Amino acid sequence: MKLLLSLCLLIFSTLCYAEVNDIIRPNFYYLVSWSSKVCVRAPCPQYTIQNLNSATTRSILGINIPAALKSYEKYLTLNESNSVIIYGNVSPSPQYPTEATDLNIVRAFKKLPLGNTAAATDKFYLFTDNGMRCVKAPCDSITAILANLYGQTQKVNTVKQPYQANVGSLFDSVWLSSKTVRSDDNGIIGQATINSNGEVIISNSYVRLPDPSSKCPALPLLKCQANNVVIYTRDENRCLADPNCTESGFCTLSIPVCPEGYYLDSWKGAKFGCNNYHCDAYFLPKTH
Questions:
Q1: Percent of the chain, pLDDT > 90?
Q2: How far is the CA of 170 from the CAs of 159, 163, 263, 265, 284, in angstroms?
Q3: What pLDDT, in 10s, does the model give residues 4-37?
Q4: Who contacts 41 (Cβ-Cβ below 8 Å, separation ≥6)?
Q5: Out of 3-12, 43-52, 269-278, which region has the weakest mean confidence (pLDDT)?
Q6: DSSP secondary structure of 51-115
Q7: DSSP result, the chain
Q8: Residues 200-233: pLDDT tens digits?
């Protein structure tokens, strides 16, 4: 009986402690910046975090990365952290609990290269479908939510991205569009201004990592008849899909070039089994 009582007290204490921890360590969205510093003594914080849509900043000693994001570590730390938004919380650094603070990542977002220069009026938004359906356009079917300020929302009708123009025709706009307006936590964070017409003009989009959020499904084995080859489409998660057979033939030898910050992804998806192409951001892993 005493043992049972002790176990109950232990479980109760643990639950209470966890709840208190959640209260004193709330999660927020943070911009991260890093600069190399030479300090006379330790600790020597080299990161600064700033609450999105706020001027509040604080120094950070270390960044704690969860297992699901370990493969992206080099894109989230040091100089690469200057293009990162973190959703997470801060806690005392284990080595210097009274002198320094660490940032604990819950979700990570990375800025796509070749956005536009941020406007003075830009703020950081998340976007969700509000369910409104209209007979005529424009229709305010999207709700823009100010990050960290969830009571401040605005209905809008369009979200405009700069990447098709800045990166070129090989940028995968279908992929980005699928991430822009979401009902889950996998959507982008947009640095944007909302104009008087209810249009969101995005300067920069931060996409959530990992991407894709789950492993691509296995493709069925498809055997084609003689003089035919298998071709694929690439879906909104950048995964190959829909294998089909097509007659083989001559393909052009020219290969397109992607701008700085992007690499060329190719797959057999065109007539005669020729390659299709997209330009993907440098930090996105290949999926095939």
A1: 86
A2: 20, 10, 11, 10, 15
A3: 444 444 444 444 434 444 446 799 999 999 999 8
A4: none
A5: 3-12
A6: ETTS--EEEESEEE--GGGGGGHHHHSGGGGGGEEEEEEEEE-SSSTTT-EEEEEEEEEEEPSS-
A7: -HHHHHHHHHHHHHHHHHHHHHHHS--EEEEEEE-----SSS----EEEEETTS--EEEESEEE--GGGGGGHHHHSGGGGGGEEEEEEEEE-SSSTTT-EEEEEEEEEEEPSS-PPPPTT-EEEEEEE-----SSSS---EEEEETT-TT-EEEESEEE-SHHHHH-TTB-HHHHHHHHS-SSS---EEEEEE-TTSEEEEEEEEEEESSSSSPPPPPPP--PPTTEEEEEEE-TTS-EEEEEEEE----------PPTTEEEEEEE-SGGGPEEEEEEETTSPP--
A8: 999 999 999 999 999 999 998 899 999 999 999 9
In the numeric block, the tokens 């822009």 are attached to: 180
Mean pLDDT across the stretch 283-288? 97
Evaluate whether 147 touches 126 at the Cβ level (below 8 Å). Answer: yes
Cis peptide upstream of residue 138 (ω within 30 degrees of 0): yes
- Across the range 101-109, mean pLDDT stands at 98
Return the half-sphere exposure (C-beta side, CA atoms, 13 A cut-off) of residue 168.
15
What integer best gives the mean pLDDT of the chain?
A: 92
In the beta sheet, which residues pair with residue 47? 34, 60
Sequence-ordered list of residues with C-beta below 8 angstroms from that of 92, at least 6 positions apart, any chain = 98, 100, 101, 102
